[in-house]
Automatic annotation (TrEMBL):
It comes from Tricholomella constricta. Keywords: Cytoplasm, mRNA processing, Ribonucleoprotein, RNA-binding. PROSITE patterns: SM. It comes from the Eukaryota. This is U6 snRNA-associated Sm-like protein LSm1. Component of the heptameric LSM1-LSM7 complex that forms a seven-membered ring structure with a donut shape. GO terms for molecular function: mRNA binding. InterPro entries: Lsm1, LSM_dom_sf, PTHR15588, Sm, Sm_dom_euk/arc.
Length: 136
């Protein structure tokens, strides 16, 4: 059956359908869900989706449900090994406890990236284009 599917970027996703996947987006969000569908542009449909945030040795989840992701926003897509998923030494905490720390981490990362961009612009001659979140 696999020999009948041409090998293209989206064609290689056929084995991932109905499996639990991790999707990291350009804006840094990390989504866990079951891949239900995709198209030739790698637009994805995730079911039973949760968004995870991390800080230190803790993580929190927020239910997102059915999620449609535009393919151009996907940075990474990988299958989650269900046998090893619970072996990760992280403590799950409430979303509201971890969210302020996560936002603080994201803001400090943004400031570091802006500082780097300014140095590259002033001292190395790089342009400022492409600052719409493409610097993942």
């Amino acid at each position: 059956m696999d020999s009948l599917i041409p090998f293209t970027t989206s064609g290689s996703l056929v084995d991932c359908v109905d499996r639990k996947m991790l999707v990291i987006l350009r804006d840094g969000r990390k989504l866990h869900g079951v891949l239900r569908s995709y198209d030739q542009f790698a637009n994805l449909v995730l079911e039973d989706t949760v968004e995870r945030i991390y800080h230190g040795n803790a993580f929190a989840e927020s239910w997102r449900g059915l999620y449609l992701i535009r393919g151009e926003n996907v940075v990474l897509l990988g299958e989650i090994d269900l046998d090893r998923e619970d072996d990760i030494p992280l403590q799950q905490v409430d979303w509201h406890i971890l969210e302020p720390y996560h936002k603080n981490d994201a803001e400090s990362k943004k400031q570091r990236e802006e500082s780097k961009s300014q140095i590259l612009y002033e001292k190395k001659g790089f342009c400022k284009e492409g600052g719409e979140g493409d610097g993942y």
